[in-house]
Amino acid sequence: MSVAFRRDGDEEHLEPKFEIPIPPGPNRVTARGLRLIGETIDALEKQIAAGGEEAAINALKRDLRYWQTRQITAELMPVPTGETVEFGTTVTFALGGRERTLSIVGDDEADPTNHRIAFSAPLARAMIGAEAAEWVAFNGKEDAIEVLKISATEAD
């Protein structure tokens, strides 16, 4: 029989399981972000210890490897002064005639629905280094963003 027609098992036809991709660049975190990573690791370890289906446990172990790597590589950033827009600040700004408030945090802590964006996001990068009452360029437009207020982000 030709090798082309031989099939040893179903394993060779399953989707490959890849590790969760690590965001490029430094792994900067706030104190809150570092705490959340630790809590996630604790929760995953408890789920793995509880046992269950092999595929589910393998998925949990993959997630655990990701979060352990993020914990090991975490760079806890100093608390900002709030004088300029930087990592760990909360910024109130006007963009397109609409006022918004966002906190600039690490990649894993980012949650746009809760007004937290990653320091690597284009909007954050555009504002970093700006002071209150300063206008900055964004999306190819000069003076697109007016920085209204800056404060150090409260840890919750």
From TrEMBL:
Residues 1-18 have a biased composition (Basic and acidic residues). Signal peptide: none annotated. Pfam families: GreA_GreB. GO terms for biological process: DNA-templated transcription elongation; regulation of DNA-templated transcription elongation. InterPro entries: GreA/GreB_C_sf, Tscrpt_elong_fac_GreA/B_C, Tscrpt_elong_fac_GreA/B_fam. Residues 1-25 are annotated as: Disordered. GO terms for molecular function: DNA binding; RNA polymerase binding. Residues 83-151 form the Transcription elongation factor GreA/GreB C-terminal domain. This is Transcription elongation factor GreA/GreB C-terminal domain-containing protein. It comes from Caenibius tardaugens NBRC 16725.
